[in-house]
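Ops channel
N.P.: pipeline sanity check, posting one input/output pair.
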């Protein structure tokens, strides 16, 4: 597959920025809101935003169960910030009724790096991405508390896991789509091509 079709879950969050980053990384990018649109993509990005709102909207739009099924079936999926929370098998500090897609055997703590006014940028050494550290934008960012044995830790910040991968599922605590550096998106596009 020379130019994979990669969707961005367009229920809430920084959808446009991911569409731009994916296009710059040589993918055909399109928004996904419905199960029919999900069925047409080779990979999917779950963007940052507000994870409890995203969870509720995924249920309301009838896309949560189809998304779970596709991820279980091997759909390459990449989640940033709230998307990382959506891909966790378990979350801490979430709402009691908050649902996730799952896909990575990890426990994620919501808003672990602090509130909105404690947002920051940091250089992050990222395994699998050439060319030096990736600039991470952390906005009310989660971190990974623990992972199962099949999860590869790709990056840490201040001894907290901030990028992980399990099979065809990738997640970062931070927002690479906000920096103009599309290397993490290129890594994901390569994952989709190899699937």
């Amino acid at each position: 597959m020379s130019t994979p079709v990669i969707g961005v879950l367009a229920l809430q969050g920084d959808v446009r920025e991911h569409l731009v980053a994916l296009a710059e990384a040589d993918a055909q990018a399109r928004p996904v809101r419905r199960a029919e649109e999900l069925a047409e993509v080779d990979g999917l990005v779950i963007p940052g935003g507000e994870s409890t709102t995203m969870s509720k909207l995924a249920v309301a739009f009838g896309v949560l169960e189809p998304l779970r099924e596709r991820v279980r079936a091997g759909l390459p999926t990449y989640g940033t910030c709230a998307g990382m929370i959506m891909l966790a098998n378990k979350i801490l500090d979430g709402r009691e009724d908050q649902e996730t897609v799952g896909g990575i055997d990890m426990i994620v703590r919501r808003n672990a790096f602090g509130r909105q006014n404690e947002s920051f940028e940091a250089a992050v050494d990222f395994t699998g991405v050439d060319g030096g550290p990736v600039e991470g934008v952390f906005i009310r960012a989660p971190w990974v508390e623990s992972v199962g044995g099949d999860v590869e830790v790709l990056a840490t910040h201040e001894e907290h896991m901030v990028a992980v991968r399990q099979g065809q599922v990738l997640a970062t605590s931070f927002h690479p789509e906000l920096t103009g550096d599309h290397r993490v998106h290129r890594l994901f596009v390569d994952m989709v091509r190899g699937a």
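N.P.: looks fine end to end. Residues 116 and 161 are 20 Å apart (CA to CA).
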